[in-house]
Design brief:
The structure is a single chain. The protein is an alpha+beta fold. It is 51% helix and 9% strand. A hairpin with a 4-residue loop joins strand 1 and strand 2. Helix 1 runs parallel beside helix 7, helix 6 packs across helix 7 and helix 11 packs across helix 14. The longest helix has 34 residues. It is extended and about 105 Å long.
């Protein structure tokens, strides 16, 4: 039986840095090692082992040392370096091909907190820049407004170039024709200037809005609204749910654009149907079991597998279930994308063709289950469930339109059955049968 897996790794305070903190604090206070050892009743050699993290320390001895150094014991046993150590581990795991001495991270954070902080800060900056590159790449590739502006500008430039070539190469021209060509160049130049201003204004509006929101595709704006709700729409849940039309009308961000309102209405109608077929309390109670199998669960309660996947992804934060969700139509265009930490999703289309959701499109009504991992060094492993079901009504001699859904959940497994990417332009995979275009990232980025 396929198990429904959750990550429940407990977070314990890191005590490996305690000795380094004691040494750093002692040196900062100008206290000799022998003096401190004598004051707390231990030998200098034993204190030396403690300061080099070769002996664990706690209880009364830690309290006595803290008292002698005039600091709180918790600052020595926990300290800010625990967060720094996590940041160093993240920086190391995100750099494939670079062999970092992981066992020395504790010593580095304890003895050289400034340099360690610099490494962590630079890694954080690289992560932010990578996310910006991904957003800009997706936008340049798929934003229809930007594509239209660029096409118009190229058309005008081509027209100006053609007219100028005629004036240059035709020698003596009739005065009337020369005036006509000059007039065309003047008018096309004005159009080019207007388009350039429109393009600049478009980017200024985008930057002022943080690169998201308006002016975005309506589907992207609606997905951003769903993300703000954590993909749980409380007003459509339970017996007290309000009508779909009222739910859309109560949200200013949805009714401001008729296209967004239409997308929201369609999504809300199915969300309400799903909520009636499978209340969130039932799903939340079921997923708490360690042996929960979504396929068996859907058979027991008599609902479609795709509904179970969507309802798990729509659970409120209080349920404590980390999940991602992707849906697409028969063309492979992404309709809804709920991200989950560690599994990058493109903001627009052109996702990795190796995702199980696209395999589901070729095997309608067949539930798929596999462990997946995105390309990169020490990337987390996820359990994915996918299925494609008919979206249109059955007709004679007409193939049904399909909609596929994929649920993404953290997994305890250390190995994956399938390695995928987010989208080709920012994928780290070297050789890939599904690659459409080269990655903009340097090898080993």
């Amino acid at each position: 039986m396929v198990k429904f897996e959750f990550s429940e790794v407990s977070q314990l305070p890191n005590t490996g840095l305690t000795g380094s903190r004691i040494r750093q604090t002692r040196l900062s206070n100008g206290v000799a090692q022998a003096e401190l050892a004598s004051n707390v009743g231990i030998s200098p050699s034993y204190l030396n082992l403690i300061e080099h993290n070769r002996r664990r320390i706690g209880g009364k001895l830690l309290v006595d040392i803290a008292s002698q150094l005039n600091v709180e014991a918790t600052l020595l046993s926990e300290g800010a370096q625990s967060m720094l150590l996590d940041a160093l581990a993240k920086a190391s795991s995100d750099q494939p091909g670079i062999e970092c001495e992981d066992d020395k991270a504790v010593e580095m954070a304890g003895r050289f907190p400034g340099w360690a902080g610099l490494v962590a800060a630079q890694h954080s900056k690289v992560e932010n820049l990578t996310q910006q590159v991904e957003a800009l790449t997706d936008r340049l590739a798929h934003d229809p407004q930007l594509a239209a502006l660029m096409h118009e500008m190229l058309t005008v430039v081509t027209a100006i170039r053609s007219t100028a070539t005629i004036l240059q190469d035709s020698g003596e021209l009739d005065q009337e024709w020369r005036a006509r060509f000059n007039r065309n160049i003047n008018e096309d130049s004005k159009r080019l200037a207007q388009n350039a201003q429109s393009l600049a204004a478009y980017f200024d509006a985008s930057i002022a809005d943080g690169g998201g929101g308006h002016p975005e595709l309506p589907s992207v704006q609606f997905n951003a609204w769903l993300s703000e709700q954590s993909f749980h729409i409380a007003m459509l849940e339970g017996p007290d749910a309000i009508p779909v039309s009222d739910a859309v009308a109560t949200e200013p961000g949805l009714i401001s654009d008729p296209v967004i309102a239409a997308i929201a209405t369609s999504y809300f109608e199915r969300y309400r149907q799903d909520a009636l077929a499978l209340p969130s309390q039932v799903v939340a109670a079921a997923v708490k079991g360690t042996d929960f199998d979504p396929l068996t669960f859907c058979r027991e309660i008599g609902v479609e597998f795709s509904i179970v996947l969507r309802r798990i992804a729509s659970l409120p934060k209080a349920a404590g279930v980390q999940s991602g969700l992707v849906s697409c139509d028969s063309s492979g265009a992404m309709l809804i994308s709920k991200p989950v930490d560690g599994f990058a999703l493109p903001r627009y289309g052109a996702a990795c063709p190796l995702w199980p959701i696209f395999q589901a499109l070729s095997r309608p009504a067949t539930p798929l289950c596999s462990t997946v991992q995105q390309a990169g060094y020490r990337q987390p492993v996820f359990k994915s469930y996918a299925v494609a079901v008919p979206k249109s009504a059955e007709q004679f001699n007409v193939a049904p339109l399909l909609e596929a859904t994929m649920l993404i959940l953290p997994s305890h497994s250390e190995t994956s059955e399938l390695t995928v990417g987010p989208t080709c332009r920012i994928c780290q995979r070297g050789v890939c049968p599904g690659r459409r275009e080269p990655s903009i990232l340097a090898p080993g980025f």
